[in-house]
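Lab notebook, design round three. We kept the backbone fixed and only want residue identities now. Task for the bench partner: fill in a sequence for the structure below.
Input structure tokens:
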């Protein structure tokens, strides 16, 4: 259906593609990946005819249709959401406009009206509206939204309406650029299922690894001006690429050894008359070889150390008896919640269950309508909401904004971090006011990470980030020593970061004291994506707090028995106090051991980052063994600390 043949393309002297070819057949599901700037968007431009190749050819099958969803912006005028979703051709749009004018009495030209009816009928117009309504509903539009002017809605909802238009249109080839950016979890699940049955071919750019794993049958990677196709899902691509690199490296080394041996013979005997002919033959043998290129160097992971927040108390934040409602909709009643230092909690549950509301209550963005929000000792909370530009000064440049904080970093550190989130070169001097929504999102994230609070509350932090930037964010949060509570639809990100799961449904909180896989196992979930929005059916019974039963003090009692009871109670109180002191001492001892081990872990990690450790005679193996032992000790002592801390009675 689509053939790209030996295409080359350069911009300003930079080669983006060199003699590349690609075949897309009907029914293909292809993920397009590559580092930022590799040429993914340029390839889309070539396919759409918006740019022309320097050499080579892009050819479509006759009468093949193509539909394109850009990443961030698409136009919207005075048409309604439903009209936008059904405007699949200019002829159909014009016909509907004439019909609408005729119905309102504004256009009484009967010939034009009958022509419009004919065009509308021939293009299947009568079937489009029911289909569009089903698709719009799947993308979370309410029926009351169908007749709203599209331009009155936010940019994200306009993008959903354009996505609906493409699905109604059903082109032979769908080009999708980060199509999941503007979808909530339930819409994403619906969209993923819809694409599984899509009749045409799909070529998509996506940072969502789970989405790629569920949908694509092959991955096309753009790297070093070439296209490399791998059969299978994202996970298959990763394993195949690693195997391919190993094979290429082995072949390259073997050939280099052979070349070195031939060159050595030629160098040693070229001056001897009896051997000169043989030496010349060896040199020609080298020239005739089809050289194997060295494997492309793996993109180095960006390494930088973020400033760490001050250490907080053990209890970081609590909500006590909190009520919250939106009008007549009661979200929480008598809510109890507590988070402790260094916890990493992901909030999951169906749309409307109260995940974002809980995050806003914790951040103080929503004051409790009843009950209290209490921050622990030395806690500073930071909230990364979905409305990123509220954190930014539009009059500043990108670099000025990054450096504008109570605890500013050096310009070099700011530039390094900005570069990892796709602000490179002169991009750092762009005014914040002209940034796209995705760029503002990335800049807001940089600002938060350069001066992090010790309680970090994040709502969909990976939206608008490419895969490299998501990995940089994961690396940053791995270093983060504070407490993290977040919402995300990125399963890879959740697996990498979350250490516990809090399921929310109908205002009820159910904790799972393990990572995301533990949550999936406990709930017997069949899909890692679907489990993010599962409702009450997945809530398991967790042990609650035990309540003490009061003594019956109303029974009559003699004086001697009363004194005896009081002495026994006093002894019990003394024993309990001694036991409490021993437990507190045990907790303090374990905390000291944890601090010592954490310090040693940092020292070993820093030593392993030193290239000298990997030189001959270096200590890399020894350091790795010690680091593994320290990590094991930390896990064991942390478990002991958790058990010991749970036994300590809270102070009155």
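Proposed sequence:
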């Amino acid at each position: 259906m689509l053939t790209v043949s030996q295409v080359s393309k350069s911009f300003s002297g930079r080669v983006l593609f060199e003699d590349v070819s690609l075949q897309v057949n009907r029914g293909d599901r292809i993920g397009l990946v590559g580092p930022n700037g590799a040429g993914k968007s340029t390839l889309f431009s070539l396919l759409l005819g918006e740019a022309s190749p320097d050499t080579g050819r892009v050819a479509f099958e006759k009468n093949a249709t193509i539909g394109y969803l850009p990443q961030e912006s698409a136009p919207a005028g005075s048409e309604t959401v439903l009209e936008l979703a059904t405007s699949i051709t200019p002829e159909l749009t014009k016909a509907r406009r004439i019909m609408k004018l005729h119905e309102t009495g504004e256009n009484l030209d009967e010939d034009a009206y009958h022509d419009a009816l004919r065009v509308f009928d021939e293009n299947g117009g009568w079937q489009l509206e029911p289909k569009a309504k089903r698709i719009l509903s799947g993308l979370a539009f309410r029926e009351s939204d169908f007749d709203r002017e599209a331009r009155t809605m936010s940019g994200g909802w306009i993008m959903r309406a354009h996505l609906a238009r493409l699905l109604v249109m059903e082109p032979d080839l769908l080009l999708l650029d980060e199509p999941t950016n503007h979808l909530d979890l339930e819409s994403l699940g619906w969209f993923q299922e819809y694409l599984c049955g899509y009749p045409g071919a799909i070529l998509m750019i996506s940072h969502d690894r789970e989405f790629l794993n569920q949908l694509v049958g092959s991955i096309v990677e753009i790297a070093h001006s070439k296209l490399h196709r791998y059969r299978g899902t994202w996970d298959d691509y990763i394993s195949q690429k690693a195997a391919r690199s190993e094979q290429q490296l082995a072949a390259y080394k073997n050939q280099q050894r052979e070349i070195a041996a031939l060159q050595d013979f030629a160098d040693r005997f070229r001056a001897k008359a009896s051997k000169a002919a043989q030496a010349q033959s060896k040199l020609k043998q080298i020239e005739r070889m089809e050289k194997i290129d060295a494997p492309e160097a793996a993109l180095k992971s960006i390494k930088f150390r973020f400033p760490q927040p001050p250490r907080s108390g053990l209890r970081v934040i609590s909500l006590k008896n909190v009520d919250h409602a939106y009008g007549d909709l009661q979200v929480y009643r008598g809510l109890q919640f507590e988070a402790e230092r260094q916890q990493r909690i992901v909030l999951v549950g169906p749309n409307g269950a109260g995940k974002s509301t809980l995050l806003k209550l914790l951040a103080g963005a929503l004051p409790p309508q009843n009950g209290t929000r209490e921050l622990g000792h030395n806690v500073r909370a930071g909230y990364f909401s979905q409305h990123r530009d509220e954190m930014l000064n539009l009059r500043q440049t990108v670099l000025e904004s990054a450096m504008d904080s109570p605890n500013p970093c050096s310009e070099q550190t700011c530039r390094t971090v900005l570069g990892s989130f796709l602000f490179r070169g002169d991009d750092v001097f762009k005014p914040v006011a002209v940034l796209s929504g995705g760029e503002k999102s990335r800049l807001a994230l940089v600002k938060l990470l350069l001066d992090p609070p010790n309680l970090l509350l994040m709502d969909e932090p990976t939206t608008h980030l490419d895969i490299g930037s998501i990995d940089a964010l994961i690396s940053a949060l791995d270093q983060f020593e504070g407490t993290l509570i977040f919402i995300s639809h990125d399963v890879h990100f959740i697996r990498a970061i979350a250490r516990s799961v809090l399921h929310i449904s109908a205002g009820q909180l159910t904790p799972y004291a393990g990572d995301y896989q533990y949550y999936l196992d406990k709930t017997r979930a069949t899909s890692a994506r679907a489990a993010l929005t599962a409702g009450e059916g997945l809530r398991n019974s967790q042990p609650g707090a035990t309540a003490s039963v009061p003594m019956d003090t109303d029974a009559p009692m003699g004086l001697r028995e009363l004194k005896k009871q009081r002495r026994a109670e006093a002894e019990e109180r003394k024993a309990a106090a001694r036991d409490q002191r021993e437990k507190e001492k045990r907790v303090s001892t374990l905390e000291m051991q944890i601090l010592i081990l954490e310090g040693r872990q940092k020292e070993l990690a820093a030593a392993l980052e030193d290239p000298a450790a990997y030189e001959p005679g270096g200590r890399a193996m020894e350091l790795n063994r010690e680091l593994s032992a320290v990590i094991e000790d930390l896990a064991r002592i942390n478990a002991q600390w958790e058990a010991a801390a749970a036994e300590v009675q809270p102070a009155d």
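Keep this in mind before ordering anything: The CA atoms of residues 57 and 304 lie 43 Å apart.
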